Amino acid sequence: MGMQKASPRTVAVPPPRARDRLGIVFALGVIAFAIMIVGLRSYEILDYRREEIRQSEAEVVSLVDVLERYVSQATTLLNYHTNPVVNAVRQSSGLDDPKLAWDRLLRAGTDALILDLDVLDPKGNVVRSSNPRLLGGIYKDQALLSRSAVTDGTIYGNPSFCSDCPNPYVVNSARRLRNSEGQTVGVLVLRTNPANLQRLAGTLGSSFGGNGRILTENGTVLVNEPQGTTGGTTPADDGLLPIDRLDKSGRTVVLPWDHNPDSLVAYKFLPGHGLFAMFARSKSAILADWQGALRQSIYSSIVILIVCGGGAGAFMRMLLLRARAEERVSSRSAELESIQSSARISGLRWYPEYDNLVPTTGTLDVLGLRRGGGSYKVKDLIANFANEEAQALWDALRDCAATGAEHRIELTVKKGPGQLSSPTYAFTTFRHEGSSPGKPQSGHHVFVVCQDITEWQETRTQHAHLLKMDAVGQITGGVAHDFNNLLVIILGNIEAISEEFPEDDPRHALLEVTLGAALQARQLTTRLLAFARKQPLQPTSVDVTALVENMRSLLKRTIGEHVVLAFDQEPGMRPWNVKADRSQLEFAILNLVINARDALGPGGNITIRVRNRVVDSAGLVGQDDLEPGEYVDIMVEDNGSGMSEEVASRAIEPYFTTKAPGAGSGLGLSQVYGFVKQSGGHFRIHSEEGKGTLIHLYLPRARATDEAAVHYDHDGGFEFGHETILVVEDDEAVRAHIDRVLTILGYKVLSRIDGPSALKLVEEGVAFDLLLTDVMLPGGLSGVQIAQKVKQMRPGMPVLYVSGYAKDMIDAAGRTTADIHFLQKPFLRGELGRKVKTALESSEVGLEVGRGPRNLF
């Protein structure tokens, strides 16, 4: 008996009853019946629409025929007026026959319809005209003359503008003139008033809700009504009538319904006149009746669906309401868990009375708490952190439990064996003043929100690194830029003074040493600008062997005497030159050697090898989009500690470093990698722990057409000239030096300190042949902006930019824009002369346009 009493509470929830299932089936049947009725009504409406379209297609065809008949009638009328002229010429020997009474013939042929008559010889010259002002001119529409010279019919051409006519545009047509022997001796050109054709097309367009057009064969509009436009040209992609894709067989063509979103179009080519007759009827007018029927059908369908489906839907909604509520609760729970997982948020409840720690779902895996199914203590949580951090978390928990104060602390988990990094968490504590779910007698407790902020912490650290490196770059670039201005004066004065002493004078030798030191200072500023990323990439043909040899002393001083540096070159094989930026390649090799030194212990070996490589489909093709071709492989190898596979895979990531804090920025290899990829090459790392590291730089081989690296010569080779140069430079000493060098080279110099004063000189009309400007200037205008304004006022003016660095002139790939002339500060006199000569020789030459015959039409 006891079991029978307990059974109602243990039995499972019964399935939906049979009548509920029948109710759902009935409701679905009612909805299906309503949909069937609506479907049948929709089919009738669609069939009605098709019939309306068929009737409209027949109407536009008829309207095109009406336009064709009117064109034929208008042509017959024109022929009637011009037949006396045509017949008179046919009975004569030619246009110069004295028997022809041209004044009478031309005057008789003009009336309100024909405004002017012109007689042209075969070359298009106007020899007779009812308008004396046009005599001696050349007819512009040669296509009309060519077509009319091969047929006896009236051919229509492009309209022309008429300032003293009733209609601003007149229609031009032409008839062939033949003499008594049947030879073509000229063309009779008629200029007629299109008002009658416009009135007809406008009447048809207004009556049938459309647009009538008459166009020439090349798309020029003769009549366009009711818009009232004449003389424009129909573009090839015209929405109504695409001229370049029309049928010229002479049959009436109706374009597909979907051809134009607004109109139904029909057209016909009139080969005897060289014209298109077209009529476009508005789709809204065509479908007006159908749209009324459609609205009525929609209203009736809505009523049917509301009546039949409303009750069924309400019935089904009542049956499914509980299921939907359960689904909503389940979905929101899953959503909350997904949000917590994505945000890497978990939680714990700590009951201080029992020191009981209850984690939420996922917290065990996040915080590394052991799974055992039992309760956890605070010591199980704080054991994951260092002593000081663990004490801070314990103090925050106790204070929150005692006073209710909220705390937020960030803690980093202790590193395990072999771990490179460990996660960081943010803990926020709150005191809950009630019972927790499932524990009505639990009392107050502390709720701890735990969020994994490892990625955010790394991003914040990287951002701080970026700000630091950007500040260093700004300072370095600014110092190098200012020092470049000083070097301009130093180099210029050394060159000038050295000419005062003969080569056998000991003082000349001292100046040579000083010049060499200044050139080394120039290389130093170039490297500083490259580090600051304010130096444009200037790929040249670089001899890698010579470059490494020149760097040998620098590299040895950098790595110290305890490291052995070797340069290994394959016997009997001369490495090719590479196409790369010389200063950036030096920086890359120096960076790799420094990294290799840091990986060595108290002693060790670093070897630099250079080999030629031919890459085909069996080589590196497919890796990082490397194309087949010829490359130079620059290898830097050390026998140091090496890297694990995981570390090597991340070595080129920006800010990734295994060095101690402050010992490295983590940007070295990423900068080298970016330079190599930017130069069209490939970067590879081979490393094993305890055996060392080998890094490959694959750079493309330089071709014979590639410009060789600049060698600094100061022993002559100056380029002289005589042109006038406008110099814009804000530094007074640099400006004076440039003026003096250009004057020595034979140029005339106009100097200005900033953009406004230079532009004022241009506006005053002062002539000059070249603009030489610094890029960074005071006065609110940079050198690039000055050049743009000068070229607007004087197109084709050559420009030579001169700057310590030219950040504004570097494109997204880091290279100087190809179509500009640029001279890097500091420079020698010979370099300045050659750049000026090159810029002058590239200036655009204007073409003088001669005067031709008068254009009368």
Q: Which percent bin holds the helix content?
A: 40-55%
Overall pLDDT metric = 75
Radius of gyration: 45 Å
Structural class: alpha+beta
**Helix tally?**
20
What can you see in these coordinates?
By secondary structure, the protein is of the alpha+beta class. Helix content is 42%, strand content 20%. It has 20 helices and 28 strands. Strands 1, 2, 3, 4, 5 and 6 form a 6-stranded antiparallel beta sheet that branches. The protein has a 5-stranded antiparallel beta sheet with strand order 8-7-11-10-9. Strands 13-12-16-15-14 form a 5-stranded antiparallel beta sheet, with helices on both faces. A hairpin with a 4-residue loop joins β7 and β8. The N terminus and C terminus are likely disordered.
Brief descriptors of the model:
alpha+beta; six-stranded antiparallel sheet; five-stranded antiparallel sheet; disordered N terminus; disordered C terminus
Topology:
Layout: H1 2-10, H2 18-90, H3 102-109, E1 114-120, E2 126-129, H4 142-148, E3 155-156, E4 160-161, E5 169-178, E6 184-192, H5 195-208, E7 210-216, E8 221-225, E9 253-254, E10 263-270, E11 275-282, H6 283-286, H7 288-342, E12 345-351, E13 356-359, H8 363-367, H9 378-382, H10 387-403, E14 407-412, E15 424-432, E16 445-452, H11 454-498, H12 506-531, E17 540-542, H13 544-559, E18 563-569, E19 578-580, H14 582-599, E20 604-615, E21 629-638, H15 645-649, H16 668-678, E22 682-688, E23 692-700, E24 724-728, H17 732-744, E25 748-752, H18 755-763, E26 770-774, H19 783-793, E27 799-803, E28 821-824, H20 829-841
Parallel strand pairs: 18-20, 24-25, 24-26, 26-27, 27-28
Antiparallel strand pairs: 1-2, 1-6, 3-5, 4-5, 5-6, 7-8, 7-11, 9-10, 10-11, 12-13, 12-16, 14-15, 15-16, 17-19, 20-21, 21-23, 22-23
Helix pairs in contact: 2-3, 2-5, 2-7, 11-12, 11-17, 13-14, 14-16, 18-19
